[in-house]
Every structure is written in structure tokens, then in C-alpha cells.
């Protein structure tokens, strides 16, 4: 009996119901048998404009049928017919042809199908589409995009629903064989159908050939046996006009195999057991260290271990063995024949693996074929000969001691999302591409994939099992649209682990009850005055950046009767308000530091303290912690006194205001004279420091001008250094050094100090070599003094910026300074390399740094002002404190830089600027350019230079990259180049990025 | 993973090869269980339901009953009916809600006042599920009640209607779909509609998915139209059966 | 079995007669809600609680969200303990469909470590006094409570999870994707008269009901006309549009009440002091 009323009416065959039975296994391993009905029909058109038969019974959608008008234009179907009536011909098919590609052809040669010069009039069979979707969602999405665009006349023919082309799976037949047979059946039907159509039309039209494309030899053979036109992709392309160019686009690796199986390594190696790792480390065969990934090459990691001077290199996914940036790992050194030089090539994940399927139902290879190819190429270059360096020891990860996974911010890879119009209720697996390039893609299962597109998303990694190429995680929340200020700001705070959430209520109880009305008590007998010196009559002032609200420090200087000077540095007395171990203290120590972004400040202490009660604002009385020296006119310190005090600042200057005041000779008031004295002394202090070997380093610093109303960036300018900047700096250094000595004297085991290690000579090797080869300059690194002196000699008469460039690069060779507890190092290790001081601490910014709060407490105890809290007596406690604030400090710096980077990007948005830049680094397939005007640094890849990518020879010994072919350029290290800066939205990621294009290299006039 | 419902727009074909306005195959039989007062077997595609009716029978409970007959419904969903074998508890609220709906719908369409202080027991056995379960149950119950000879104002017939649009997009090109199968129900928004008689009077309307209010009208229209088609089919079955009965009596 | 006393014949004919004359016995117009009072605890109580639990094995990346309803004899002698009545089934199913299935609460945001730990959010609905409009009132109560609720913050370090106390860290609100509101329509006199928010007396007399859950964005989240008198399809569509305007009004009402509550609990000045993110 039939029930399909509408179709049966005009259908002599009646409804044909078949059912499709298949077995699938679920994620949890259950096997399900699925039975589905199939309604076979005859009104599925061939979509050829040659055919009038199909046109007469083309389907209608709800709107078309809703009108039910008999006059409905019968020859304008809802889904228009696309296949041309005069398709292009080739040598082999002079009558024109329609292509019917098999799945393997699409998998290998999707790029070909996107070409504008060929591959028109393509029939995509339902069977093929389904298979393609199984194999690669990104490819499926590309194909659907091609079909939808209409330009290339692609038609999806639902062969499994058409009565004549439906093929039932025979018992014992594999699904692949059935699909092959279905493809052949459809090709055959099309051929016969078009013959009829052409005959029916009665016109003298030549009937186009239907050409099956397949790389499966068996399928080709069977097709030919059935007298169908069939050829391999390679053979077909060979017959096309631009064959040579097109042939290159066929994916070689997949070419050789005809079948539908994947190959590759299946599992990551298993981790060693705990005991095996312990034994290995004791025996010295295994090493533990932190895992770091190269920002330029995601397949190259490094692990610094005590046993080796240079970091061990970990190459490739398999050796990295599921270690993620920051994990504490155990590694095993590989045999010497596998050692290699650090990479000279940029490898980016998004480029290599863009066609991967996020849904990993099938077993997958750990290393994709593309990756393998890239690695092999790399290895070939470095085998035997060494280019640009000596082979370095390599290692593989054999275990993870501690995962350092945090929450990651990123965005959903658009191509991994199945863009179906379904309810969205169904869970999909998609890739999340983290903002941090060193973190691998993360597989996320979510029901909201479509909503998450174009958003900044926060995710967590849950696990990384041996059988999964990528870690698996879950969605935490969405931060908002990509590129909006809110989302990007929150993203960078999260990425750098900045605690930006509000202070908990418990902190409220720790604040003074008077709130903003708090005042220094008028009565000197009040407990607050105990032990304080009354310095209110001193002419104190502060000098800070403009609009500074959290004023940590103020200064004064006055002549003494003996011809010496009294100089005072007064620091906000934060520890008067922040008592040890209460809620506010633990919150502040957790935050570690205030974080400064371009338009925002993430406070370490509540605003009430930071910008009001502690801040040494002008014209009001404030508690302070003062360091007062007696100095000779040559700036030699005669005596130093530390005391808690009460001060009243007379003025809050900005650097510029102070400078103007000093320069204005008409100003003769005592305050101005005091500031002039300070400047005079600071210059002498600075000279002494420089003579002792302090370094003058440079980092690219720019400032973003922001429009007040909208907080939109307006302009970018390079920061200027005024004398008053270094005035403040010198006295702060002096205060810090003095305090460091004092608290170390009082607490030799537990003083909170700051050190800057001397960089190992190997850090400078590369730069030394570069300078020697390119400029014949010598960089001496045996001491900070030698380094400072030799840096001064690195000048290029024609290129004033050259020296700054070298200083920037030298800065990157340095170690980073760190807080430490005095008892954990020997005295010789206390040294601050950059400042050339044998001891140092941070004392002068307690409002924004927790280390200073600790130093304040220790100093207060050292001068017997109060008892030291027991927690600051404990070495272990201080050590963990240092560890946290070191990390927070680093993160704060990076967040600040990222914020500037974002705003510079926004300021440049939509603009195209040509600027001078300098080549900082040369790779074999690209180079890094630094643009001082905007403080930006970006990669220029070979393939960005011209299309097609120019040939290049890389001379690693001389740091020269020569391109030939489509564009001839010579890129030389340190040379000035002209670049065009524009912003660009990356298609695959939706991120806006600064893009540098090379306008001209070398020889700028 | 085969294609999903997004492929509809390529050629206006649904996952099983149907067009937007086509019902699945409906197969129905009456008087399948000789022991019951009324019985039916109904297939809508791969959804298969048996229904038996007992009554009207006297209420056993002491203390009388109400002035109208009480309609009671029980649904038994076989463990093997779905893709995964599931054991349903008696207190499954989803099933309880379906029972309530069916009972409530027929209480209004049956002439219950003719049978004071009695019950009409409808028992449904679900043998196989592939979407439109509530609709299939309502249709099977209508046939079984007719078989039991209980007077009613008209047929209650039901079917489902969906939409190819997602809840978030209010896109005008979305097509309404008639009679969803299990897979479509999982992916698309849909509603179950039951009408009383050949008009547009809606007795049951259940929707459990989110959808833009603007899409409702076309879905409802397609559903009501589907109900009319179902009614024709059921009517055919009843008349064929009636003719057979009459023929056998004449003989 | 204690039952709600049925209406007397007099009452019955009086109410129906009045309806026929376009009059409701409490003087409201047909499409008016009774006064809505929301002070986080009254008539219907909805309480939200959260605990850390292990996620379901088939939903590894999701948290757990359950709504339980309890109709206790406190509210009406017709309710019994421990017996599942049709009314209770309909109530809990409607809330389930309108709030849980429609994805009002983003359960993915409740995941802490997939497959191991997640938040389990439980909404308990207790009815205190019953005079009709059970579903509507319960739905409003749950939605308001979900918006009002704050769960403790958690942090994850490597594979360790720390749940912070309310004092330690500011607790976080739940991530609600939309706010569905249920509106019940009652049909009388064979469907000629349609009322909103029927009282108990009216409910006893009605021929059928239609519950529509809709959010203020115009998305219908569930429709339930479970039998009863057959109604013209067009009338039903009209009801959906009326429900939308009602839902928008109620949503605004809830958010204004929530703001009031927030203001009452935290004086504005102190709140500002606690912000860590400040303009430069």
C-alpha cells in the first residue's frame, strides 16, 4: 500500500521505500544498529540545462507550493539548474564533459577544484559528500562553499534517493565497494539520461561526456570495464592547458595509495612510571625541567635542565609527547646522531593542519602527514652539515611531573564547525585555537559551536590521552565578540593570569572605618603617631607620570650647614594599613602587583588605600616611610637614617612639569631649588653607577594616545626620556640599595631581596656571531662593565638606530631579574647584574608591588619600629612568596605589553602606513622585522612576498636570505628595510593582525 | 557520520529522501486483538504502536465515580523500541505526561456523558520508535476507540511538523517540514499537533523545542494540513474494515 | 482521599454566566495577571543550591541541573505527600521543558573538570499557598531565583580544584542564556472565552488550558495544550503573541526586583571600593 500521496499521483512506479541499515559505535563504545527509511523517488533533477524532462518535475519548497498557482513558472525551479549546456571540452573529451569526482579525489585535490581556470560543471554525488564529511569537515565546508557560490557550477546530486541510481549493499560487500559501485551507477545513469535528454530536445547538440575521477585503481578498472569514462586525477589534470602548475597542487603524499585507509603513528609513547623516572633522574640519565615551546615553531620545544648549559631541544609531536607549554617534564636525551641545530624555519600550526577533522571517531595519526613532511625537510637540511649553529642535544619527553594547565583563551576554528542549520542542541567536537601560539589546538565538545563562532572563548584542558592527537577540554565561558575592547582586555588578563575580579567583601573589614575621611590624627599622642617623626615642615614633592593617582614616592633635598645635603625619599606607608595575614594582605600577596594596561589599572590594593589614604597626594598629611641621607656635594652618602614619618607633599609634578620648573630660571623658590639639587645629585649618582658597570639597556617602548571619551586609540608615540625621569629613578635605586643592605643586616637568612643573574656567555653567542659576521664588531660579555662598554662601540655612523637595535637584542639575551629570600643564595649570587649593585631590593612602590610591602615590614622591624610577623621569619614561606610574585611580575609585564600591542593594532586599524624597519632575525623561509615607530615586530614569510612563493637560498653563516624567481630581494640581518604596515583579518582565525609587507629591501636612500 | 539536516537546502530533500510536505508511509489495521473490546496496529514510518481499548466498564472502586466516563491511558514502551535498550520506570514523567495528554484529549472528544460511573481504558504498546511517537499513539487510539464502538464527536488525528530553521535564526527561507522521523526530531525544532475533525480545531499542541515565534504559524499550518491527510488515510482504513465487517455479516 | 471541595452548582453557573457577560468574578480583565509580588520568598518558594558532583557519564562536559517540585499539604488539602498527581507531573514537566530543556541555564559553564567534577545546581520549588496559576508562578520563581543565585568561585591549578568561600572570592552568578516565562491560558465555554492567570475557582471550571513558555526575545520555548477542548489554530497563535507581551513585562519586573534587592544588600559606595579593575 502507498501513502505518499503527492508523489504517487504522477509517479507510475509508486513510492519505493527502502531502508538503510548500518551499525555505528558510540563514543562510550556501545554498538548501535541504526535502521533508516529511504524514500526513493524520480523527481530528483539532473540539473543540466540541456534537460527539459527534469525541469518539468523539479521540486518546490514551501513558499513555492504555498501559492499553489498553476501558472507558476515551470522553467524556473526553486533550486536552479546549474550544469552548463555547453560545458568546456578537453583534448580527450572534445564534446565537453561533466566531472564526477570520487571522494579520494576531493581529499587529495580540493585546491584544484577551487581553481578559476578549470574544474567547472562538477557533479558531487551524495555518496561522495557523505564520505567527505566523514573524513574532513573543513574540506566538506569548502566544498559546500564552492557549491553555494554557484560560480563554478557544482551540483549535488542525491543519487541515493533516486530510484534508478540507488544501490543496495550486497551481503558481504564492504561499504567502500558499495560506495564505489554507487558512484559508477550514478555516472552510468547520467550518461544515459543525458543521451535521452539531448535526443528528446531533438536539437543537434553534442552530448557531454560524464567523466568519473578517481584515484582508486580498482574503481577505475571496474569503471572502464563498464564502458564509463574514467581517469585518475593526475591523468585528467595532465590533459588540461595549465597542467604543470595544476599538477603541483595535488597532494603528493596521498597520491600513492589508492585505498581509503589512513596511516601513521597511532599512539603517543606511554609515560614512564614514577619509580622509573626517579631512578633515571638519580642515575643522571633522565632530566627534569620546565617545558617551553618556541613561539616561531610549534613543533619545537625546549627544556632547560641543570645538567646542560644550553636548553635541550624537543622536536616534533611524538618527542614532545603531550607536554604542554609550562609543564614540568622529565626528558631523556636522544642519541647524538639525532642532535640538531635550532630551527631556522617558521612552522605554524594553522597553516599545516587546516583540513583536520575535530571529531575523532576514527583512529588518527599522532603526526599528520603534512607535519611529517615539514619535519623531514627540516631534518634534511640539518643532517650532517650545520647551518647557523652547532647541533644541539635533543631530547624526548618521557613523563610529566606536574601539569601546569590553566584556562586558555582562544577562538573556535571556523572550519572545524559543522555549519549546519540544525537545532544546535547536538554536541559537536570543534577545535579551539588558543591565543598563545605555543599551546596546541584543543578539542572541545560543545552544543553551542555556532554561537561561539567569532567570540573570544575561555576553555580548560581536561586531559590528553595517548590516542588523541590534541588535548581534550571543555568550554568555560564566552568573553564576547572578537576584537571588542572588553573581550580582548579580559582575554589578555586571563591569558596572563591577572586576578581582576573584585576584592572579596572580607577585605572591606580591613579598611579604615573612616573611609575617605581618614586623616592623620591631629593629636600626636594617638597610637598612629608612635615612633613617627614629624617631617611635615619639609618641602617634599612627588614626580610621576601625568595623571598618576597612586603616588608611591616623594622626595626632598635641602642644604645642611656643613655644606652637605640632606636628601629624603619618602615612601607611602602602606604597611600601616595592610597588616600581616589579614584578608587584605593575603589578597594583595596573591595578586603580587598592580597591572597597568593602556586604559586600565588592575589594583593590588583597594582603591581607598591605593589612590587615597596611602597615596602621597599633595597638600595633605600622609603617613610615610622615609629614608634620609646626608650626602656630600659629590653625592657620596655620609649617613643614612630610616624612619616612619608624617609628611605633607607640597606639589605633585609630572615629569614634564618638573622639568619645566627646573629649566625656568625665573623660579627661585625653595621647592624648585630643592628639585634642582636633587637633579644635580642624581646626575652624579648616575655617573657613578655607569662607571661601576651598570647597563643601559633598551626595550621598544611606545605609548598609546587615547581619546578620553571613547577610549579609542588615536596615535602611537615613542616614549621620551626626560632628565626628571632619571632623577626619580636614581633616588629610588639609592633607596632600594640602602634598604637592601639594612634588612639583610637585620635578617641575613630571610631578607626579601632582588637579584639579576649574570647571563651565561652562551646567551650572547648568536648576537656576538651576528655582529662579527655582519659588522666586524666585537661584543664582550665577560662582565657587565665590559658589556656596557662594548655596547657603546656598537654604532653605525649612518644608522643612529643601529645601537638601539643592538641594545634591544642584547636585552633579550639577559636573564630576568627575580625576587629571592636571602637565605636561599650565597652572597655572591645576590648581585644585580644590570644595575651593577651587589645587593638590591624593592622598597619604593608598596602600593603596587607586594615585594615592597615585605621589605617595608622587614625594615620596620630592623629599625625596631615594630615586631616582625612570624610568617616573614620563615624561609620556606618567603620562598613560595617570591615564587608567586616573580610569576605575577612577569605576567603583569606581558599583559601590559599585550595591551599596548592590542591598542597599537587598533590605532593602525584600517590604515596603511609605510615605515622603516630593521631585520632582526632571518629564517630560511622568512624574516622578522622590527618597526621602531610603533614598537612592533612581525614576521614576513617568503610566501607573503609574491605569488607564487619565490625561490630562496638561505645563507645561515652570513644571515642572508636571497630570493629569486617571482621576486628578487636580498634580506640581510640588521639592514634597514621599508615595510608597508596594514592590518589584516586572518581568514582561518578571525583574528586581526598586524601585517608587514616588504616594500623594498636594503640600500635605502 | 551521515549527512545531517543541513543538507536539505542543497536539493530540498530530507534525510530520508522525502520532500517537505510528505508524510511517511502510514500503515494501519483495525481489530488486531480479538480479546480486546477495540484494538489497532499503526505504523508511521518506523514508529510502530499497538493499541487496545477495554470498556466502557463499570468502576470497581466503591464510592461511585463521576457523572462522566473516565478515560484512562497506559503506555508501555518496549525496551527494544529505541536504538539503545532502555528500561523505563513506571514513574517516567514524560510518559505520564503523554498518558495525561491522550486521556485529556479523548475525554473531550468521546461522548463520555453516555457512560456515567465507568472507565474506558486505553493501553498503548510502543514496539518501535522513530519520531512522532505521541502522534502515532493518538492515531492508534482513535482507531482502537472506533473499533471498540465508543461514540465520539469526530476523529482525533495527529502528526508532527518541524522547521528547517534553528531557534536563533529567524530566517525567512526556512521550510516547514511535515512528519519528522527520529533523526530530524533530534536536530530540528518540531511540534506535535492533533486536530479534532476535518477542520482546524486543535485538540493537542505540544512543542518541546525553542523556536522563533514567527515560525510557529507555518509549522502549525503544515501540521494541520498533515492531520487532514492522516485523517483521510485513517478514514480509508476504517471504511475498508467496516465494509469487511458488513460483508461478513451479509454473508 | 481529601479533595478540593468542588464548586456548588450555584457558584458554577454564576461564574460561567459572568464570563459570558465578559466579567471575571474578581473584576480583572480577561488578559490581566493578578498582582505579582516578588520578594524572594513567598507563596511559591524556589531555592537554588549548588554542590560539586561527578558529571553523568554521557554528558562529560556538562554540569547537572535539576528542578524538583513539591506540592505539600501546606498549600492545599488537596495535595498529598508522596503521591504523584497529574498536576504535579504537568508542573514538573512544564518547568523541565520550559527552563531546563530550552537551555536557559548554560550547563556547559558548570563543568569544572570534564568527566570528573562539575557543579550540580538544584532548584527546589515549594508551593506555600494555592490559588491557581501554579505553573506560571513556579516558573517565575525559578527564573528569578536562578538570576539571584551566586555560586562559590572555583579555581583550577593543573588538575587540582579549589572551591573558594564566599569571603575569599566574590561568588559568581550563573550563566543564564535566556529567561523563559510561562503563561497559562484557560479556555471556557467551549473555547469562546480565554483567560489569563485563572484563579483556583476558574481552573476548576475550565474546559482546557494552554501553557506557553516564551522569552523576551520572542523565542517560544515550549507549548503544551494537553488535550481538552479543541481550539481554532488561529486562536492558539494569538495566544502565543499575547504570551510574548506578558513575558516581556514579567521579565522586566523580575530584573527591577533583582536590582532593588542588590541595592538593598550592598551600599553603592562600598561596592565601588572593591572593584579591582579601574580606569587609569
Automatic annotation (TrEMBL), chain A:
| Gene Ontology molecular function, alphabetical | 3'-5'-RNA exonuclease activity; endonuclease activity; RNA binding
Q: Gene3D superfamilies, per this entry?
A: 2.40.50.690, 2.40.50.700, 5'-nuclease, Nucleic acid-binding proteins
Q: Where is the PIN domain?
A: 97-221
Q: Which Pfam families match?
A: OB_Dis3, PIN_4, RNB, Rrp44_CSD1, Rrp44_S1
RNB domain residues are 532-865
Biological processes annotated in GO: CUT catabolic process; nuclear mRNA surveillance of mRNA 3'-end processing; rRNA catabolic process; rRNA processing
Q: Could you say which cofactors this protein requires? A: Mg(2+)
Quote a single Gene Ontology cellular component term.
nuclear exosome (RNase complex)
Q: Origin, by domain of life?
A: Eukaryota
Task: Enumerate the InterPro entries for this protein.
Answer: Dis3_CSD2 (IPR041505), NA-bd_OB-fold (IPR012340), PIN-like_dom_sf (IPR029060), PIN_dom (IPR002716), RNase_II/R (IPR001900), RNase_II/R_CS (IPR022966), RNR_Ribonuclease (IPR050180), Rrp44_CSD1 (IPR033771)
Instruction: Could you list this entry's UniProt keywords, alphabetically sorted.
Output: Cytoplasm, Endonuclease, Exonuclease, Exosome, Hydrolase, Nuclease, Nucleus, RNA-binding, rRNA processing
What PROSITE patterns does the record point to? Answer: RIBONUCLEASE_II
Coiled coil location: none
Tell me where in or outside the cell this protein is found: Cytoplasm; Nucleus, Nucleolus
UniProt similarity note: Belongs to the RNR ribonuclease family.
**By what name is this protein known?**
Chromosome disjunction protein 3
Q: Which organism is it from?
A: Trichoglossum hirsutum
Organism classification: Eukaryota, Fungi, Dikarya, Ascomycota, Pezizomycotina
Automatic annotation (TrEMBL), chain B:
Signal peptide span per the entry?
none
Q: Which GO terms describe its molecular function?
A: RNA binding
**SUPFAM superfamilies given in the database record:** Ribonuclease PH domain 2-like, Ribosomal protein S5 domain 2-like
**What is the protein name for this chain?**
Ribosomal RNA-processing protein 41
Q: Which residues form the Exoribonuclease phosphorolytic domain?
A: 22-151, 155-225
Subunit description: Component of the RNA exosome complex. Specifically part of the catalytically inactive RNA exosome core complex (Exo-9) which may associate with the catalytic subunits RRP6 and DIS3 in cytoplasmic- and nuclear-specific RNA exosome complex forms. Exo-9 is formed by a hexameric base ring of RNase PH domain-containing subunits and a cap ring consisting of CSL4, RRP4 and RRP40.
Pfam families named among the record's database cross-references: RNase_PH (PF01138), RNase_PH_C (PF03725)
Give the location in the cell: Cytoplasm; Nucleus, Nucleolus
Q: Which organism is it from?
A: Trichoglossum hirsutum
Q: Which family does it belong to?
A: Belongs to the RNase PH family.
What keywords appear on the UniProt entry?
Cytoplasm, Exosome
Major place of localization?
cytoplasm
Give the superkingdom in one word.
Answer: Eukaryota
Check the record and name the InterPro entries matching this protein.
ExoRNase_PH_dom1, ExoRNase_PH_dom2, ExoRNase_PH_dom2_sf, PNPase/RNase_PH_dom_sf, Ribosomal_Su5_D2-typ_SF, RNase_PH
Record-level GO cellular component terms: cytoplasmic exosome (RNase complex); nuclear exosome (RNase complex); nucleolus
The UniProt entry, under CDD domains, shows: RNase_PH_RRP41 (cd11370)
From TrEMBL, chain C:
Write down what this protein is called.
Exosome complex component RRP45
One MF term in GO for this entry?
mRNA 3'-UTR AU-rich region binding
The Swiss-Prot or TrEMBL record describes its family as follows:
Belongs to the RNase PH family.
Which CDD domains is this protein grouped with? RNase_PH_RRP45 (cd11368)
Q: Which UniProt keywords apply?
A: Cytoplasm, Exosome, Nucleus, RNA-binding, rRNA processing
Q: Where in the cell is it found?
A: Cytoplasm; Nucleus, Nucleolus
Please spell out the taxonomic lineage of the organism that makes this protein.
Eukaryota, Fungi, Dikarya, Ascomycota, Pezizomycotina
Main location class: cytoplasm
- One family from Pfam that matches here is RNase_PH_C
> What InterPro entries does this protein's entry cite?
ExoRNase_PH_dom1, ExoRNase_PH_dom2, ExoRNase_PH_dom2_sf, Exosome_comp_Rrp42_subfam, PNPase/RNase_PH_dom_sf, Ribosomal_Su5_D2-typ_SF, Rrp45
Which terms under GO biological process does the entry name?
exonucleolytic trimming to generate mature 3'-end of 5.8S rRNA from tricistronic rRNA transcript (SSU-rRNA, 5.8S rRNA, LSU-rRNA); nuclear mRNA surveillance; nuclear polyadenylation-dependent rRNA catabolic process; rRNA catabolic process; TRAMP-dependent tRNA surveillance pathway; U1 snRNA 3'-end processing; U4 snRNA 3'-end processing; U5 snRNA 3'-end processing
Q: Which Gene3D superfamilies match?
A: GHMP Kinase, N-terminal domain
Q: Does the keyword Cytoplasm apply?
A: yes
